């Protein structure tokens, strides 16, 4: 899984452009990471200030490598971040990684995440040569579960050892 770090992969679908995260995304990152509806399913400390959002963005930018792909989801022709999607936890020997995603709540139910996820999965399989992808979702997060099922992820188990609230899904090629 070698890639040229000089060129972050920009992915374009019918309605969306997935681009590199930037410091200009701080307002939207703050909205995403402070939203109680989104955060109730995630085990993370919510962002409270623009500084928290910028610190998160800086940590993503500094971590950019073959081990993390973190895209800002935007509508094509617009620069405003409406969500994020990432590939992380790469296991090169298994040709496997994990996928994660979140969307500003006002964009839920519009098919945006399935469109973005299909592009990222296509990139992971065709360009990175991955054979499997995992996704963890909260047992009560029905929208995420439905999304993963539409993307052909299979449920591997009801309980993840260190967190009984999570369900593990896997996509294999």
Major beta sheet summary: 8 strands, mixed
Shape: globular
Poorly predicted runs: 1-5
Task: Look at the structure and give the mean pLDDT.
Answer: 90
Short note summarizing the structure:
This protein has 5 helices and 8 strands.
Describe the 3D structure:
A hairpin with a 5-residue loop joins strand 3 and strand 4. This protein has a single domain (11-172), classed as Gcn5-related N-acetyltransferase (GNAT) (Aminopeptidase), CATH 3.40.630. The chain is α+β, with helices and mostly antiparallel strands and 173 residues long. The radius of gyration is 15 Å and the shape is globular. Helix 1 (26-34) packs across helix 3. It has five helices and eight strands. An eight-stranded mixed beta sheet has the order 1-2-3-4-5-6-8-7, sandwiched between helices. The protein has helices spanning 26-34, 36-39, 50-63, 112-126, 142-150; strands at 11-12, 16-20, 69-75, 81-91, 96-103, 132-138, 154-157, 166-172. Residues 1-5 have low confidence and may be disordered.
Spell out the blueprint of helices and strands.
Elements: E1 11-12, E2 16-20, H1 26-34, H2 36-39, H3 50-63, E3 69-75, E4 81-91, E5 96-103, H4 112-126, E6 132-138, H5 142-150, E7 154-157, E8 166-172
Parallel strand pairs: 5-6
Antiparallel strand pairs: 1-2, 2-3, 3-4, 4-5, 6-8, 7-8
Helix pairs in contact: 1-3
Question: What structural keywords apply?
Answer:
173 residues; alpha+beta; Aminopeptidase; 8-stranded mixed β-sheet; 8 strands; 29% helix; disordered N terminus
């Amino acid at each position: 899984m070698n890639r040229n770090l000089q060129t972050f992969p920009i992915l374009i679908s019918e309605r969306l452009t997935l681009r590199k995260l930037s410091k200009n995304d701080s307002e939207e990152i703050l909205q995403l990471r402070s939203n109680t509806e989104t955060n109730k399913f995630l085990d993370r400390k919510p962002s409270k200030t623009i500084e928290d959002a910028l610190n998160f963005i800086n940590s993503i930018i500094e971590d950019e490598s073959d081990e993390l792909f973190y895209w800002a989801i935007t509508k094509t022709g617009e620069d405003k971040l409406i969500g994020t999607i990432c590939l992380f936890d790469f296991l090169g020997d298994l040709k496997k990684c994990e996928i994660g995603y979140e969307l500003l709540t006002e964009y839920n139910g519009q098919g945006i995440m399935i469109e973005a996820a299909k592009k990222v999965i296509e990139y992971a399989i065709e360009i990175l040569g991955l054979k499997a992808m995992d996704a963890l979702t909260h047992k009560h997060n029905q929208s995420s579960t439905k999304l993963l099922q539409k993307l052909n992820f299979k449920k591997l188990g009801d309980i993840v050892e260190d967190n009984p609230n999570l369900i593990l899904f896997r996509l294999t090629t």
